[in-house]
């Protein structure tokens, strides 16, 4: 079986690479360092709450590359640990709660409607523009970005996948600049303003990096998830689906096609024993979210993680995905995939990041 960290392309009807064995599997990135993957649910939940395994890239062995800056260099939700992380979570949580985000539901619906209607009728490829532009449009409004930045953000997100490191690096810089601009010149009533008020000791640049993290992660994951959710929802059709049924559909698809099939990196602070498996200091540890969620799960699925680093944007992602399905149900009741879902092509860029559909051709027919 192909290594799950190898770049690959497959039809959805074909079996994908999986991690076999466990509960802890020692494997490696292609041409890279050893990696320990947790494949058993109870152990995964322990690891995701175990302070022996930290998020800070400063602990990573030098062979692990393409990481965020360390928490000391760039404070962020995804790299901070302990009390520092808890403080950031307390600042973010009320701003990204389901209750706080409810005020954005109408605007998210309007954005989804306008973007889908702008594609015209007939056969369209939703991955060509919609799945990138829609989540960016929503998250920029939620954080309170100044008007007029959407096209630049879309271009930056596309450029991040360039094989040219200088192009990709410049794209990250552009998104970071958008984060800072949101703090200094934003609307004043979004998440950026809330973070500025809750974290008054941080500089505009530091809060801007927190905003960048929300924009980057919110686009990257929702972009990928949209393709799978829409494809699986439209195949049988959405007529008469209730809000609860749409939520269940989203959750079910995300269990099979999580936008992050593995947890974000964790590193052993010291020499550690993990269920009888010895790990050296700095050992990179991942949780096999997709593999675990594919089986019977006790408690909530691991799609959005578990423990202190549970995804801060989980409510926003669910809102965006459900809203698109509601718009398709109400305004495009006859929309269907242009071919069988099993014939769609999935592209995996390699490493522990998630895959996405290469294309999602859909026949759109607005309601008369």
From TrEMBL:
One of its GO terms (molecular function) is iron ion binding. This is Cytochrome P450. Belongs to the cytochrome P450 family. InterPro entries: Cyt_P450 (IPR001128), Cyt_P450_B (IPR002397), Cyt_P450_CS (IPR017972), Cyt_P450_sf (IPR036396). It comes from Pseudonocardia alni (Amycolata alni). It comes from the Bacteria. PROSITE patterns: CYTOCHROME_P450. The lineage of its organism: Bacteria, Bacillati, Actinomycetota, Actinomycetes, Pseudonocardiales.
